[in-house]
Amino acid sequence: MEEPQLLQQQEEEQSQSVSLQDCLKLLKGERDEQRLAGLLLVTKFCKSDDLVSLRAIYDAVGPHFLDRLSRTGLGKGVVSSGSGENRDAYLQLSVTVLSAFCRVSEIASSKEMVSKVPMIFEVMSMNRSGMPVLEECYEFLYLVSTASEDGLTALYESGGIKLLAHQMSALPDGSHLMELAMKLVQLMLKKLSQGIVENDHLSELSVIVTKIARQFALLQNALKFEALHLLSAIFSSEYSTLLHDALRVIQNENWSNHMRDGVATILQNRVAPAEKFEALILAESMVSIKGEGWLIGQINLPNVQDPIPADRCLLLVLESSRVEVAVLLNELAYSKYEASKSSSSTAETIISKQQKVTIVFSLVEKIIKLISNIGETEGHHLDENTFIKAINGLNETIGVVLEYLQDAKEHGQKVGNDLLASVRLVGSYLAEAPVACEDKITELLGYMLSVEGEHESSPFYSVCFLLPMLCQKTMKIEGCKLLASSGGYKAVVDCLMKLIEQNRNGVENNGCIFLACDTIMNLLKMEQITFSEDESTFISLLKALALWTEKTNDPSVVMMASSICTLIFDMTSENALLNHPSLSSSCLDSLSRLIARSLASWGQDMSDAAKADMDLLEIVTAGYSRWADRFPQIQKAVER
What we know:
It holds the Pfam family Neurochondrin. This protein is mainly alpha-helical and 640 residues long. It has 32 helices and no strands. 72% of the residues lie in helices and 0% in strands.
């Protein structure tokens, strides 16, 4: 059996050798007819992987004749014996042999081939019926772009993004053409990341994303994963936020449904952890673009006839996020506290995992928002079983995050963006479920209020993240005792003073300001809580409140500030304040005017908005009656 096969192989090699020699003779001929015949022979016998023969053929024909042949096919030049009727044939022959030659990397990277990229673009943009060389055009572009940086630059600068945005919608799903188009997009992403992304590019890239999303949803082969990788790279890029804006204005909703279908398919099947994480990147981006409601919607999977529950994607994303949080925080804790501190790879690992944690935390936080708004958002409903599953999943996730914070506390760590992100996530959940994880919160509250981001000089953002929960907890005596005993109230006061400073500098954050004010008022109103040994904290707050209200006519601000001042005055006297080195008489004048302004509104006709401040006015009025005799300067201002 082996001898006949050997003889057959030798005959094929001999035949090919004879054909190659004949071809080379024709290609080196003096007449164009001979060279054309030689190129036609090339297409007949030369195999695409025979790089040696391709090199010899290219050297024989030379770039000049190939250039003339291409221009003749485009109607811009004349090869001898070339007529108008033959232009399509010449164009097809030209593109076919150019694509074949570029399989040799040295040829693909040559200046001659790079210079032909615009010509290939012109061929691709032609609308001639039955154009048979589109695949060869894509192959040429791919081979030239991967062979050299100059080739990639030519692809990008010739308008590659625009061309693909125009053509991809017409390419067959799952075809080799679609695969090549996606590879070209992947290559050009490097150029987009290096330069300024223009508005046109964003619009074109958004169109490309919608086409790739279709492949991601419909295909069930390797190209599905190529689509996943490409979409993940696009949404992880430095221009992703700008791209989100471009995608929001796309009217066709099919692409977002395709994204949900693809994400659900990946997450419910056994795939590599890296690919599951890429699916979570896509989910996080889609929620940022379309809102939390994107997680709930009809899922259509190939070859699945039975209807799939609309909440399937939500539960898949939540469960996958829960697993990722547990794995990433465990690995991050090991890298930070157990692995060698001197290793640069350890530092890189920590940064990489911190970035991943940010993504899954963002997803979990958006799921918290979705669950808290269920019933309020039209069209989004969960049955009781799904709701319970979601709450259980969130409880588990927050429990893992609290354990991570506990570990950091035990290691004396309180600075880090990962720690700040953990506090933010805990704060988001506890804002909706303030009684959750009570034992752990009791243990960690003081620590969480001390956590700082890497570029912070004080724990400002941690306090802001926890304010919604603190405001609710301090409505009861147990919460007030916890905040007072942990010393956390000082962090809240410091946070409020910084918010006031920002407000005076034109940065409005009234939501946080009033939450901080309410929290402090809740504390001060509890008679069982005393702060007699911490006079300086509240004197600093009095100064801030005086500055905040000095030039404002907002009645809500005036009433809130005067209410807090009133409760602080219960703990001191005018003489004590004047004797304090950090409080000036001019500050006391401002405070006197503040109390007088708020009391002056008593009995006046009030708008509906002002009537909401009546409770605050009652606090001021009752307080003034208690301490007026200890503050003659305020009493004098009120009586004017």
